[in-house]
Design a protein that fits this description.
Blueprint: E1 14-15, E2 42-43, H1 48-54, E3 63-67, E4 73-75, E5 85-87, E6 90-91, H2 115-119, E7 120-124, H3 127-135, E8 145-147, H4 158-161, H5 163-174, E9 178-182, H6 191-199, E10 203-208, H7 214-220, H8 227-239, E11 244-247, H9 260-269, E12 274-276, H10 286-297, H11 302-312, H12 331-347, H13 367-372
Amino acid sequence: MPQAPRPIAAAQPALVPLSSIKGRGAATAMPHRFERSEREQFDDGWGTWEQEAAQEVLPPATEVIEEQARRILSSNQSPDISFDYSINPYRGCEHGCVYCFARPTHSYLNLSPGLDFETRLVAKMNAAERLRETLAGARYVPKSLVIGTATDAYQPIERRLRLTRQVVEVLAESRHPFSVVTKSSGIERDLDLIAPMAAQGLVSVYVSVTTLDNDLARILEPRAAAPARRLRTLRTLAEAGVPVGVSVSPIIPFINEPELERILEAAAEVGARSAFSIPVRLPWEVNPLFQDWLQRHFPDRADRVMARIRDMRGGQDNDARFGTRMTGEGLWADLLRARLTRAARRLGLATERRPVQLALFQPPVKPSAQASLF
């Protein structure tokens, strides 16, 4: 008896492979977690995507969206973070660091944590005004404050908008202590404000140096300052009397992790006094973005990198628990901490944060009083 013909399985469309965009960390404007629909390109068999890929495509331009912020000071409720307040004059960051844990914050704006995060930037135009109002308030109590926790306050658009400088001016007027974490040499512009405050024990600066390899930096942090330029910034700040530290964060296994000791040595040589490091974190949309980046740039070791990350994150791609999210856990996390501690001790680098000087604070002139002076 003849057998019935077997049904032919429908061919599954092949997904179009992503290609890197020069000067950008993400390759697509990936959908965010609140979107109800998702689109993806696929090869329909007609070769149209190959023709499009062969055409020269200009990198997406940077767009600045101006915003009037309702408040500028954010209070920290996380028990494993060492500061009380933070200021972020911008949302998004043009540096385009693919690993940036702040990328998912763009989802709340209905924007992509991918390309939108590094090309559609929000500028809080009234940042200094809001800060002045807050510090001048009768109920305000000064505490530890960090500028640039979910963005780089000295990213390229700061050269034109100068929002961070305006914020620092208010802090200088009120003698309010603060710290800055940055990858940008742009902070050197504000030494006229920062150096006198440093002399009073009111300022510390941490420069993030994740690699000494220019080729790796170019794809890991495409629009941030080159590694040698960051070291020069460390030297410039140190020579001006500003207490400076180096952040070797994030540590990515088999990518920049082998450089840990060499980065610390280079930073100590130019004047760094302290150091810290955080293993790479992959919250929300950062996870697929980072894994796509690995496949595009390091396909030979992508699986090994992710396996080691899971070793430090309880078997998961990410661990959001307080107490372990900033340090990792397990053998490999312990080994990284031991390497940092040993190298820091050898180089004379502190691994504890400096105490914050709060006694000099004086409320700034209130906005209404300031306006009456003119």
